[in-house]
Amino acid sequence: MREKYQILLSFIKDLFNYSLRGGKVYHIWMGSLTFLMIMGAILYTKQLESGLAVTGMNDHVSWGLYISNFTFLVGVAAAAVMLVIPAYIFSDLDLSKVVLIGEGVAVGALLMCLAFVTVDIGGPARFWHLIPGIGRLNFPQSLLAWDIIVLNGYLALNLLIPFYILINKYSGKEPHKKIYVPFVFLSIFWAIALHMVTAFLYSGLSARPFWNNALLGPRFLASAFAGGPAFILVILGFTKKFSDFKIDEKILNKIAVIIAIAAQINLVMLLSEVFKEFYNATHHSNSAIYLFFGIGGKTALVPWIWTSIGLNILATLTLTIHKLRNIDFFRYAACILLFVAIWIEKGMGLVIPGFIPSPLGTIVEYHPTFIEIGITIGIWAFGFFVISLLVRFGFAIEQNIIVYKKNE
Amino acid sequence: MNVTLFLISAVFLALLGCHPDHSDSSKEKYKKLTLTSKVKVAVKEVSNKGDFIDWHPAAAAGEKFLVKKVWSKTKRRTCKSCHRGYSLQEIKGKDYPRSHWNINLKHASSQVMNCQTCHNQNKVWKFNFGEKTVSANHTPKLCLQCHFKQQKDWEIGAHGKRANGWQQQRAVYNCVSCHNPHQPAFQKKWPKVGPYRPINNEGRL
Amino acid sequence: MKNYRERLKRFFAGLSKEDGKEGGKENGKEPVIKLDLLGKKKRDRRSFIKGISASAGIGASILGVGASTLMSQEEKERLGLSWEEFFKTNYRYMSGREKRKTVKRLEKLAKLKRKETVTISDKGAIPGVLYGYAFNISKCQGYMDCIDACLKENNLDRKSNMQYIKVFEVENGSLNVENGDPHFFHEVPKDEHFYMGTQCMHCENPPCVPVCPTEATWKEDDGIVVVDYDWCIGCRYCEAACPYEARRFNWAAPLVPAQELNTNQHYLGNRNKTKGVMEKCTFCIQKTREGENPACVEACPTGARVFGNLLDPNSEIRKIIETKKVFRLKEELGTEPKFWYYMD
Q: A264, A305, B66, C214: most buried by Cβ count inside 10 Å?
């Protein structure tokens, strides 16, 4: 027991030390992220002082930049499981090494999600009202209650499984498959549940016809499984090119194929939604009309959605064509474009138009303020910070750079 | 795989459990709203009964209710309250200049209505009601001669205004409490408050 | 002091060198650095933690003593009350005694924090009552006396011009409130237009209640959908779920001028709210539970608004529903609102 405690302590110490070491690029990167995080924190204190009136949200568009990013990042987190499925189900050992990276990204994305929810609610000190037992959690009626449980459970899974595997690798032992594989299967199911629950919290609202459709859940899954692995692929490509860590080219090819398929499915779903809204447009389609064409001269979102669709189609085509997909530049450029396109689509293309027009027909447009954007960038910086740390740790332990030494 | 199936079905059943009851049609629900409760809510008595008269509605509309008096003892206007210094004979005489010149009658066409349609010529404190007269506090009888369409509405509460709380014995306002009998239509005016949350182009406050 | 500087130097020296003070190079790769944070080899973790916790304890007690001598009796009472208020439970699940205690605390806090003398009622629902509301769209002229009375009665935030009631100016030709304009400000009534007012419909099947993650909003036994302002975390999910735009969020701290404050308050009604909580029309719960009509009903100069007990067969609201041609907004959503519209 004492030895396990010692291993744990030295694990933490070694990782802490390792996080402080690195080349110039690493220090500049982490330094600038820290700067952005501090800026975000300062702006958040302004928001705590004056209330959410410093944001661009109002009673009509009551969820804005924060919840848009939250929705998108839940998808990114759920997508880590896309790498887990082939690794474990098809016993494809190639991917097992990079699965840890996916789970590191998932943890970063989940922490960002929790941060976005915290900055969005009006009374963050009252979060304890949500804890069942001390407060009152409205489970199973409220989909938000489901989301809180599923999110935190997924975070726990994504922390504990890699922790178990890594600490065993670190101390030179082999992780027992019997212990972690059931949890891996659970995390596959859980990731899908996570994103479906997040989709249900939108699609369950009968007051918002733009969201109240059956395709929202599957659409969320498709766009998540395109956007999340795209992000992971870019990280892997970056790591391969600029560091000493070894990554097999076959793995990168496999992930690129997965992304291509998911992006194609996403486009098919987009087509289906567009057809339903525009073939025989009813007043329920007003939100879609506002989004794609604008209503009464209010066209703030129109350039965003068309850019998103353009980038999406371009990226999907690039990834579909074998020759292009295998050229590094096109592959990674397409991934970045796809990530950006899906970010726009989930945020500005889904959350905001759901509120415009309002249930009684008023059109009020949404423009985020400087403080809102600053806090958002701060939280993204925090997420990248965590992901950078965890990805580095994962690689370092996998490739035996950090090993437990018994000398004390 | 079995574990997964079990979990999925458990979730599905849990979701079914929290489904609100939509089994009744809308009509059934509406009927539930109009059920009478077994608990009787106490009716609070009106404290200032002297300010109201009793009104017995036409057969179908239900029990009697109170109507606010137009002229209570304190508010009654006598001729002398405006016409000071003249005797009643002088006021009624032919040489007395035309009175109430500032009252513009915008009620009905001049072919059907003039001052004498309502005001009794001999008893100025009374109002004509067929061949009889009624006092000022019973003028609804007068109005409802022509405005028979509003009678049922007024008696059930769809027209007019409640003068006291929902829990008290029902008391409503008289016709002339809201409608100036010489110009009954509501006038145009500016709204009392500005629009809510003045929204600028950017949607911010 | 010099000793400490030495220690710090050694600490940073240990970080930057390739081979650290302890442990040598391993396989030519980056060595594992065994770092002792205080720079001394002999000191072990146990005494380190002891030192930290001792200094923390001393610091905290100094703070406590300093604070109690520096704060006045009033401030201490205020902090104590605020502390108790912060940790209370959801009003819906409080016992009668707890409810009475919390309203007493809130009355005291109002006095201490804002110098207001208020009475906050914790009166429950009257048994055998289900409130209903009717709105006559032939009568409404758009005067907005209702809105004026409502914001005064319910202590609504003046800075953001918060209003529970919205009056839509709709052009003749369609009975659709969504075609209406709620932002009009000109002489009313406008020709060839009519007016429809909306507010919280107090649905029998409210879509805003099941979505709240903390059960901060619920439907009371007399049919009024209420919010516990001290329990709401401000997630605004109910605002997204409401089909009638009934909910209002306090984006900033609400401000009511002291001379316009209505001191006759109810816990679930018009009492003071902090920023970051949801509120909405409560059918003037502070008035209706005492047998009076809501402020909007009393203020309307044309008598377009009717209020009463749906369970009383002799009430005006029942007679209107049974006799007139009534309709409700968005009935297809199955929310069963208790707010009917009718025409002459």
A: C214
